[in-house]
Prior knowledge:
Elements: H1 2-23, H2 26-29, E1 38-42, E2 49-53, H3 66-77, E3 84-86, E4 108-110, H4 111-119, H5 124-139, H6 146-163, H7 186-197, H8 200-206, E5 210-214, E6 220-224, H9 239-245, E7 259-267, E8 271-280, E9 283-292, H10 295-312, E10 313-319, E11 326-331, E12 340-343, E13 349-354, E14 361-367, E15 372-375, E16 378-381, E17 390-398, E18 401-409, H11 419-458, H12 491-500, E19 507-511, E20 514-518
Parallel strand pairs: 11-16
Antiparallel strand pairs: 1-2, 1-9, 3-4, 5-6, 7-8, 8-9, 10-13, 11-12, 14-17, 15-16, 17-18, 19-20
Helix pairs in contact: 3-4, 3-5, 3-7, 4-5, 5-6
Amino acid sequence: MIKRQNRVAMATLLLFLILFISTGSVLAAMPSFGSGEGVYLLDPDTGDAFAKQNEDSRYNPASTTKLMTALVAMDYINNRLSEGVTVGEEITQIDADSSVADLAVGDTYTWEQLLYGLLLPSGNDAAMTIAVNIGRLAQNDPALETNAALDVFVGLMNKKAGDLGLTKTHFANPHGLVDANHYTTPKEMAQIAGAAFGVSTINTVASTPSYTCVSGNGQAHEWENSNILIHQTVSEISSSQVAAMNLTGTENPYYNPNAKGGKTGYDEAAGRCLVFSGQSGEMHLVGVIFKASDQRGIYSQADGALDTALKDYSHILWSDGQSPYVKTMVSFASILDGFSISASTKGEAASTVLTTAKDSYSVQVKWDSSLLSEKGNHVRILAPITEGQQIGTLDVYSGSTYIKGIPLYTDRAMSPLGWVDYLIMGGVLLLVVLLIVVLVRHRRKKWNQAVYNMRRAEAGYHFEGIKEAEMEAPKEPPVEDEGLAPLPKSFLDMEAAESEGRPSMPLRARLGGKTRYRLKRIRRK
Length: 525
């Protein structure tokens, strides 16, 4: 009994190892995360997640907030990056121990320099100067009071969150210092980061290892990027981070050649926060890790996530977005709208999948049941459809497991049958009936004329309009006292007459391009 149990246990272990090695599971390949951490690793090209944990839970984003600050600012300064900005009293409102870019009241910087001071050393002073001056620009009021301008900017941050479709995010300041009304989720921060890194200026700034500049008053600055994933050597990292992480030697153990932009954040309540991005070939990653316990751990996690996501995953392209994905016949649609409808995706539609599991993925069209009902090889329209309306989804499956639905849109309007259609169909039916009546009357008229001509011919008359030479003379003289056979009254009678040897309808011949009748007397035998 014990031996049998051992064999079962060994077989189970062997099966587990085979499955573990052959599938290359995302959970096995990705680094482990603490249970309290919020994680979202996003492929911005497809919207799919490489990995996620507590993705919809509320977290304090700390200084990763500054990505939204930069994103809002670019709406106003994209074409004026070289313009000068004066630092005001707003920088005195920040805590003395917060991270700063060492700006001074009354000094001047360009908008571009302020963006570097915001994102590289994570300057709260730069965040305040940007926010107040953008608030004044938005209100077109250079004299707007500091706190009023700050309120305007925070309102713009929340409006931008709404524009991005974020429902679990709210900002209370431009720098990320702790506030009960300042929060987001890992998933929504990944969406903010994806939008921010999609702006070329922000992406360039956030990807720069270090930056030097001189202010309008001659103050020199050298700012190092606090995201150490992009620093190849320890000497490139700020001395405060080197000391905090106890880094030694020359090479940075957390350097990843595929890492691009990023933004760090920290306070006691928020814990260690990191937003990072990377690219290798066609694959992109935007990652968010909230509330990690230490710097070494969070960079180790980010480094491992970059390696796994960019090397072990690939894309499956379902639709190019240029041509309709599906076209089908539609029943009970208005005659004026045609009898087919097509649907396509908005832009390319793809899935991010573990390369070794590509063959397990498939797609299936699912129509919106309130608009279209599937009936075999066609659909029946149930309600009016407008141009550009979503009419279904392209559902993605891994085996039998549902993964996601990609919206399908139509490029034309279509309505069910209405009273106009019934009027049109009634009119067409009436025309068909009238046409049948006309044809029947025409055939009857021709038949009556033929019968009349035949009777005249049987009575020995030549029929008007036919040359005498065209008449076939009887080959034998008529037999005396033999009367003529009765004329047929219908085509059935004619067939019967033919079978009995009695006279039938005259033969028709085409002479000179016209139809003539060749008549002959028929004797009764």
